[in-house]
């Protein structure tokens, strides 16, 4: 009342001056607040599962027990439509840490061993940008990207100089490393800690004898060692919940039961990490993000552009935005949104730079997800874009995809139809796939949504209506009724490829050339002759 009376006693000009003064003071103090927040009380904990899917209560799986993930999700905004832009470990992590799609950051396939892929040396990664802005960075677990000059953290305990089993799956060891990172943390400096679990990745290919998902590693039985903090949960094959894209066979059920046991280690690991953050007094100023690099390693999953390959769990807990805790949102999110989200959190601008040519400045295609934690989801959701080149070096199968309005999805298979879809080593050795091969060879029913030959041989264009056909079984691209949508999606995908300097822009029917007006596609006239 008093303020109101005073205000009315002042003339118009004074009101104007006072308003301006108020605005200036506000601007100054807001700026001050932002920089204070940068110095105190702004940290990020990023936890990424390895081939982790939706096997948890919060996403409707009531069989696989994940109390720690569910408790975190209950305090987070949970995204039901989050995807990776590329369904392969190293490319996904490079895209996550650079904010740029695979074909732009240059990491086209797996990083380790013979595969040997690295991003361009000129890429500016999230840990680099953060370090330049005074944020301390740490990584514990699976790094799996390079070169080291691009992806380096202030604190590193990764497979580069540790056993991946220890830093990626031994949750007691992970707990102690998180404790070490926090104990060496300068109180006044903000941090980003990236905990990259190796669970629940498959195991038979790299560590045979520990169970299909390394589900026996550290379980305390003779020969398997002991992880003091892990209480393994065992599942019966008949009790697991099979996703629609996994065949309903005894072999696949046994496979999924192993996966669930490994998820109990991941889940309890998440609980331990959160506990360390709490004990260090950081819960109230740390943004916590949980996701996975790509879909689970089952048919239709990892290495595919079908939904089971792209869709990932994602939940974000902010200590400051409490209104939407425990809510589920169907806003379209991508792992390419993580860099903009973290930069937004720290109030840091994305640097202006180019990777290959000055005429090709990089820009972040993703968006900050923080506004969704505060407000509603009405903000127009943009299109999703995906870009995949290969997984293992022998698995060259480039694909591009677009999803518009959560309804129509277009996949461009650049190698189709001549080349069969490739299978990776550790999925090949899975009980699920070996059984599918056996059944196919012996003419037995697969109990699956497709025949193996349809899975191998794909059309160049695949278009799906995700609302009417969420399992992506009916290719609409030749249907007259969908002609316009097909052309529109194709055009938008081409424009996106162009704006992100995609070297595959003209593949497979043209060669990418350059004239003074810019890049163009010179035709190859290589359409398959009829009857070939
Ligand atoms: C691994 O290397 C990092 C530095 O890159 C070092 O801080 C860490 O102590 C090393 N870990 C081991 C187990 O040697
Ligand atoms: C902590 O960080 C601040 C600012 O980054 C710096 O001035 C100070 O010297 C650091 N303290 C220690 C003990 O490293
Ligand atoms: C896990 O790590 C702890 C702590 O470093 C160690 O005592 C334990 O033996 C490890 N377990 C396995 C299975 O390696
Ligand atoms: C596949 O069949 C072969 C021989 O028929 C058998 O030895 C093998 O165990 C089978 N593998 C699976 C995974 O069923």
Automatic annotation (TrEMBL):
Its cofactor is Ca(2+). It comes from the Eukaryota. Residues 455-496 form the N-sulphoglucosamine sulphohydrolase C-terminal domain. Residues 1-36 form the signal peptide. Keywords: Glycoprotein, Hydrolase, Signal. InterPro entries: Alkaline_phosphatase_core_sf, SGSH_C, Sulfatase_CS, Sulfatase_N. Residues 42-348 form the Sulfatase N-terminal domain. Belongs to the sulfatase family. This is N-sulfoglucosamine sulfohydrolase.
């Amino acid at each position: 009342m008093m303020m109101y009376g005073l205000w009315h006693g002042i003339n118009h000009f004074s009101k104007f001056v006072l308003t301006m003064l108020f605005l200036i003071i506000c601007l100054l103090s807001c700026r001050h607040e932002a920089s204070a927040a940068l110095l105190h009380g702004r940290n990020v904990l990023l936890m990424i599962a390895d081939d982790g899917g939706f096997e948890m209560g919060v996403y409707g799986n009531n069989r696989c027990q994940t109390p720690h993930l569910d408790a975190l999700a209950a305090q987070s905004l949970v995204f039901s439509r989050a995807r990776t832009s590329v369904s392969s470990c190293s490319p996904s992590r490079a895209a996550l840490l650079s904010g740029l799609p695979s074909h732009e950051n240059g990491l086209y396939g797996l990083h380790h061993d013979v595969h040997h892929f690295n991003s361009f040396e000129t890429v500016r990664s999230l840990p680099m940008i953060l370090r330049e802005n005074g944020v301390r960075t740490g990584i514990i677990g699976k790094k799996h990207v390079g070169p080291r000059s691009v992806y380096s953290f202030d604190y590193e305990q990764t497979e580069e100089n540790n056993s991946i089993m220890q830093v990626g799956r031994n949750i007691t060891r992970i707990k102690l490393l998180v404790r070490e990172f926090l104990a060496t943390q300068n109180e006044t400096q903000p941090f980003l800690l990236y905990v990259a679990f190796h669970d629940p990745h498959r195991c038979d290919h790299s560590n045979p004898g520990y169970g299909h998902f390394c589900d026996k590693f550290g379980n305390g039985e003779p020969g398997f060692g002991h992880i003091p903090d892990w209480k393994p949960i065992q599942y019966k094959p008949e009790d697991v919940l099979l996703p629609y894209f996994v065949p309903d066979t005894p072999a696949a059920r046994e496979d999924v039961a192993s996966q669930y046991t490994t998820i109990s280690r991941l889940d309890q690991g998440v609980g331990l990490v959160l506990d360390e953050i709490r004990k260090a007094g950081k819960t109230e100023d740390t943004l916590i993000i949980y996701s996975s690099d790509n879909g689970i390693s089952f048919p239709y999953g990892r290495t595919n552009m079908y939904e089971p390959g792209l869709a990932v769990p994602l939940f974000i807990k902010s200590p400051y935005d409490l209104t939407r805790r425990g809510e589920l949102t169907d806003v379209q999110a991508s792992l390419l949104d993580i860099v903009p989200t973290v930069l937004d959190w720290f109030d840091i601008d994305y640097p202006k730079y180019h990777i290959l040519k000055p005429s090709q400045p990089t820009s972040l295609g993703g968006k900050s997800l923080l506004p969704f934690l505060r407000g509603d989801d009405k903000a127009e959701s943009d299109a999703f874009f995906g870009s995949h080149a290969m997984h293992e070096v022998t698995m060259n199968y480039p694909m591009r995809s677009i999803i518009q309005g959560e309804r129509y999805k277009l996949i461009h298979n650049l190698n189709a139809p001549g080349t069969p879809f490739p299978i990776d080593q550790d999925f090949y050795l899975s009980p699920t796939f070996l059984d599918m091969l056996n059944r196919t060879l012996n003419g037995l029913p697969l109990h699956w949504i497709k025949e193996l030959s349809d899975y191998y041989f794909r059309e160049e264009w695949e278009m799906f209506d995700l609302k009417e056909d969420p399992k992506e079984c009916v290719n609409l691209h030749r249907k007259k009724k969908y002609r316009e949508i097909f052309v529109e999606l194709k055009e938008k995908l081409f424009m996106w490829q162009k704006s992100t300097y995609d070297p595959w822009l003209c593949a497979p029917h043209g060669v990418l050339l350059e004239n003074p007006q810019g890049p163009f596609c010179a035709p190859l006239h290589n359409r398959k002759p009829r009857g070939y």
